[in-house]
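Researcher: Next sequence.
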Amino acid sequence: MKYEKGIEMKIAATILALGGAAAVSLAGVNTTVIDFEDGLTHNWTGPQGFGGGTAIDPTGGVGGGAGFRTQFNDFGIDFSNNARDAFTGDYTQYDQVTLSVDLKIDQIGPLEQGITRPFMVELRSFGLGDPGTPWASVYFLFDWVGDNSFNGFSTFSATIDTNATELPIGWGGNGSFDPDTFEPALPRGVTVADILANVDEVAFSTFLPGYFFTADQYDMTLDNITISTFTVPAPSTLALIGFSGLVGTRRRR
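Model: Next structure:
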């Protein structure tokens, strides 16, 4: 993974629990956490159909709480949210946005084989992709993960500078392709700012642009899906803030 210095607010905050979601707001930071403890998906969807399904597992989440689990056979897995809620909309109204999720892998591929697949977060804007493509997007590859990558849950996090005019370090663009390398790229005339001003869908996915895989069995659980928005506070507030952080992180729980 690639890292870049970012900003993390280190201020004591009071958490307001909202069933399966929690919201935190203090001095320019607003955080929403979806933990599924109320039995609701809060607009998040996973694969459903002939290959299996996705549902809330009441005891499969972090610490034995609820989690959002998919057991599905397909070419990849896509957990997404395209509702108009805290995870979508105009990111450019903030100075920085951080998305994070807890992930547990029980299986990818045949049992005991332990193959790996990419795991990323993608911010999608419908209608901005080249003809025939459903969206244009920016995405961050957390890591390649598999059923032998770790035991239990790990936390993955990515931060994007919403004032960026070029793709930030570690982020890629999709919706078109480079005519020379044929690698994924933003469509001609579409900028990072265009995507961030109209985020129609957020996804945690194994469908890394530019890669194709065989169909395999997936057993994955998400928990604590989180978005934190940061707005630079007034100068008088800056004295209260400590600055540190990473653009992308992974840690064991």
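Model: The helical segments are 192-197, 235-238. Residues 1-19, 238-246 have pLDDT under 50 and may be disordered.
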